[in-house]
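sry for the spam today, last one i promise. struct tokens for design, 286 residues
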């Protein structure tokens, strides 16, 4: 008799739980106050540089980001150079006045943003030399249940051998373009360092960016500072999440730009500098 009662109670409880799982739950998330977002990445291979400024949106917002206009935007180098940026028609996009922004590998750069009653400044970023790509080629994902790699499926990825510089802590980012389009989903951010391969030629496999046979593929390899590398790793971990196995505890990712007038004010985004090497057409091996 007691056993029967227990079974009935378990069945009743499981039924209640099953029904409750189907109920829609709505959570009101606080919108929070808008924060300033700064994005600027100076490249050694470009003479026209760009800085983007906008306000953040709330979590559930579907509106476009509001640009931040009428800001004095300047970049200073430790070599005594000053570069002025001008806004493009109230877009929050600021570009260099001339195309003579000649960066120097080994130099350091710092961003200053002058607004009404406030000044934002970045930490100084050093442009480190990027080691060369010795060889690049296309590899394919092996499915142990198949004997043939299907050409029409996304089974291919970029591999390369890197000539790492000895006695230098190198941090890398790859930007991979497939048929001219940057693959920039959080899961497709390619980051690596030379912690265990310093001074050696080592192989990198970008298995998180896959494409079809015959696609046109090119790679940009960026040098990063340690601070920039850690920032991008945090961004990747926070944005490339899933409900089964989240990569990181949800948290704010703060970049390297701060307010001088109000040190407690949160500023999102990052100002970085990179030397860049480009492989325009990755080799297909038949």
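last one done:
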């Amino acid at each position: 008799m007691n056993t029967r009662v227990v079974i009935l109670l378990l069945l009743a409880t499981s039924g209640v739980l099953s029904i409750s799982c189907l109920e829609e739950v709505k959570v009101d998330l606080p919108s929070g106050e808008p924060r300033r977002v700064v994005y600027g990445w100076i490249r050694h291979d470009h003479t026209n540089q760009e800085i983007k400024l906008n306000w953040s949106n709330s979590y559930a917002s579907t509106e476009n980001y509001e640009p931040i206009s009428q800001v004095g935007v300047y970049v200073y180098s430790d070599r005594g150079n000053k570069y002025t940026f001008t806004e493009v028609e109230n877009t929050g996009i600021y570009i260099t006045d001339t195309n003579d922004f000649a960066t120097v590998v080994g130099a350091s750069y710092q961003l200053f943003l002058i607004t009404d009653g406030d000044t934002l400044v970045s930490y100084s970023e050093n442009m480190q030399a990027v080691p060369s790509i010795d060889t690049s080629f296309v590899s394919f994902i092996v499915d142990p249940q198949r004997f043939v790699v299907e050409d029409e499926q996304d089974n291919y990825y970029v591999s390369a051998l890197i000539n790492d510089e000895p006695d230098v802590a190198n941090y890398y980012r790859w930007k991979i373009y497939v048929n001219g389009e940057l693959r920039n989903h959080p899961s497709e951010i390619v980051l690596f360092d030379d912690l265990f391969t310093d001074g050696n030629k080592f192989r990198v496999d970008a298995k998180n960016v896959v494409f079809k046979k015959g696609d046109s593929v090119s790679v940009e390899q960026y040098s990063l500072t340690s601070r920039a590398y850690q920032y991008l790793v945090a961004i990747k971990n926070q944005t490339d999440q899933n409900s089964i196995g989240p990569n990181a505890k949800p948290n704010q990712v703060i970049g390297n730009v701060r307010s001088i007038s109000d040190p407690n004010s949160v500023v999102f985004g990052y100002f970085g500098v990179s030397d860049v090497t480009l492989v325009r057409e990755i080799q297909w091996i038949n």
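The longest helix spans residues 2-21. ok im logging off now
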